[in-house]
Amino acid sequence: TTAEAATFATGAGAVGLGVLSCGATPLTAGIAGATMAVYAGAYTPMKVRSPYNTHIGAVSGALPTAMGFAAALGTGLAASPWATHAAWLFAMQALWQMPHFYALAWIHRADYLRGGYTMFPLTDKTGLETVAMCKPYLVALCALPCAASAAGLASWMLPVGAAVPSALWWGLLRRFEDQPNIANCRRFFLGSLSYLLATLALFTAYARVEAEVEAETEAEAQTSREPAWRTAVAARLSELCPHEQMKAELFGLLSGSCPFG
């Protein structure tokens, strides 16, 4: 029954928040609570009332990206040099959800209509309106890696690497636009998943912070800014960087000279 479902959800949610608060940080539990509140209190009711429910759902879907930062940094997140990275991830995840769920809604529009849902793609008979709605979000997603590098959040290898999954996802959208059918829309939808995984992996590899922390040695400064595993991964990627190899071989410059590294 509805009452039993509500009781179970409340109990499970309370246990989960308690685990996050005790096992991670209270801020992590707070973000999780906000995610639940937005999803259950705003997004779910709006599904049958307004096609803008997807925009609200994007907020609840993006909030969990901040939970990892909150678990690692606690209340110091706002003052941490990683705060802007958390904001970047939130923005990327929120923008990504729009074309992802627009495609899903167009594929299953008959089921959505039977369920009483209201979403913009449900009135799109040809698929071209859905394509047009997705394009601005893909443009913004293509710009985000460049913005991250320009702001010093990541090396310039981020937009270089992100160009590949971005181009592949754009290609799937173009195919859907040229031949608007469920099969091509499903390919575009599945392409969104591979794009997200690739972008997250690239950001994990190339994200960085400026050396603003005073320490007696560079090793201590590096330890204070990021976990050891990220330092090891970055060092390995630097070894594989063709720019580093070329400069080392031709000019004998030290590692770290690559502007993309």
UniProtKB/TrEMBL annotation:
The chain crosses the membrane at residues 56-79, 85-107, 156-176, 188-207. It is a multi-pass membrane protein. Keywords: Membrane, Transferase, Transmembrane, Transmembrane helix. It is found in: Membrane. Pfam families: UbiA (PF01040). One of its GO terms (biological process) is heme A biosynthetic process. It comes from the Eukaryota. GO terms for cellular component: membrane; mitochondrion. One of its GO terms (molecular function) is protoheme IX farnesyltransferase activity. The keyword Transmembrane helix applies. InterPro entries: Protohaem_IX_farnesylTrfase (IPR006369), UbiA_prenyltransferase (IPR000537). This is Heme O synthase.
